[in-house]
Amino acid sequence: MLELYHWEPNVFSLAALTALNEKGLDYKSRYLDWLNFEQLGPDMPALNLEAEHNPEYEGPLLKDGDALISESFFLMEYLDDKYPETPLKLRTPYGDWQVQVWGRFLGERVSNAVSTLGCHRYLHPLLKERRINSAETVTGRFAVQERQVAWREAIEDSYSEEVIRDSKRKAGLLVERIEKALAGGGEWLVENSYTIADIDAFSKANSLPKLLPHVANEEKAPNFWAWLERMRARPAVQKALATSKTGKPDEAFAPGPEHPRWG
Amino acid sequence: MLKLYHWEPNANSGKPILAMEEKELDFESHYLDLLNFDQHSPEYLKINPLGTIPALVHDDRMLYESTAIMEYVDAAFPGPQLRPSDPEERWRMRWWMKFCDEYYAPSASMLGWNAFIGPSVRDKDPEELKRKIEAIPQPERQVAWKKAIYGLFTPEELAESARRVAFGAQIFEENLKRHSWLAGETFSLADINAFNLVYFMPANPAGHVSPEKTPCTMEWLYKMYERPASKRAWSRGKTMTADRLTHLQRPTVAA
């Protein structure tokens, strides 16, 4: 049986949920409240080395029999490798390369930028409201140092102006690249086929109309906007978004992952 | 037609070289001198406008991103399969490649650039250096080069990188305690990727990788060194880099 451990359908969790739905796979959704630290509680499966050091910090985990799969982009590739029906990757080497280049760009440059903007704008006030004010009481829960730093930043809202500015630039780059990829009139990002590149990009782009309204809007980025609406109309996406318990999945952000430390 | 634009057969350039050697592919090798900024020259920017190496040109297509290039090479050409058929092993291959690409390697390379690459280009003419930096197409890469060339890494940054290298070596060993190869029981692109990073660790005075501390990593390094493809790949080097390999010879057991 497939089980997905996840939180609100935004960013990494949204990607994993959407891919499972697109595949039409039967799975159990295990919703855990990450802001209540249920990802560290007894409802979680035993972690393997990779899950312990999950580069997404707070990210979905897929349990498939004995396998425990982390890192949402590779999780989607795993689903496509293991359950090849309803392909979500291209079956040509060049097509696959393009999908992976999108994955790398989204993981390394975009996911952290969008999360920083979202944590600054939505998570920090929410933590305050929940009276999670002291980084000391929180960071001790996590073994991995980088994950402690990510929570501290969110609790203290200690993002520098430079990081916020750079995050806006990188999030804007996503809008720009999508706009460009669709400039020829295509509907989907890679070779006009619907793939995990679209799913992954959408999981980071769904919040951009709120986080970056001056860039991510219909007038400035009409192709991006039409693509966003196409994505939102897909039943698999709607089913994923319906797992939200807050009713505002596009305002749900968890700390991390970190920005590249060196260029 | 298959052309590879690369520097020394280590780090990112080493990844596709070693993958192509494992598959025994014929390719045209174009050596660029990274320390002479060949990768930002107008001629090369016509081939790869991003100004990064390596780049693979296959017929009329140009491919970049060394890890994704390796997956392409494995998918597009015959020869031994370098990606496991088992989906879980294939996932693990990708997970550990990302660990190397985004965690272990950037920290190790910050230390390496600070100690070797920065000082070795710093004595060029300052005006010429300035022009070369301005010719770098991506803003992220400009920052990276400036920091290395002018020695702008802070002591805190360097200490954090040193901590990560030590920690990276430790969980790398943890993984190899579980399996013979990084992805599981199958040799894969993850081993090729990691070898291009971990090979010099035993020579590093910090001593995080050694027969005493990390026996599984050392055994894996010996096995990697013994592969004929590794020797062919390293023979493409033009500098002293390849000399660092000698410490990877399996010690002979005394009778």
Number of contiguous helices of chain A: 11
What is the percentage of strand-forming residues of chain B?
5-15%
**Low-confidence blocks of residues of chain B:** none
Number of strands of chain B: 4
Shape of chain B: globular
State the order of secondary-structure elements of chain A, H for helix, E for strand: EHEHEEHHHHHHHHH
- Describe the strand arrangement of the main beta sheet of chain B, using strand numbers: 2-1-3-4
Largest sheet of chain A: 4 strands, mixed
Radius of gyration of chain A: 18 Å
Annotation field: number of helices of chain B: 10
Shape of chain A: globular
Helical amount of chain A: 40-55%
- Compute the CA-based radius of gyration of chain B: 18 Å
Briefly note the structural class of the backbone of chain B.
Answer: alpha+beta
Topology order of chain B in helix (H) and strand (E) letters: EHEHEEHHHHHHHH
What number is the mean pLDDT of chain A?
97
**Fraction of helical residues of chain B:** 40-55%
Uncertain stretches of chain A = none
Q: What strand line-up does the widest sheet of chain A have?
A: 2-1-3-4
Name the pair of protein chains with the most residues at their interface, and give those residue counts.
Answer: A-B, 28 and 40 residues
- The average pLDDT of chain B is 94
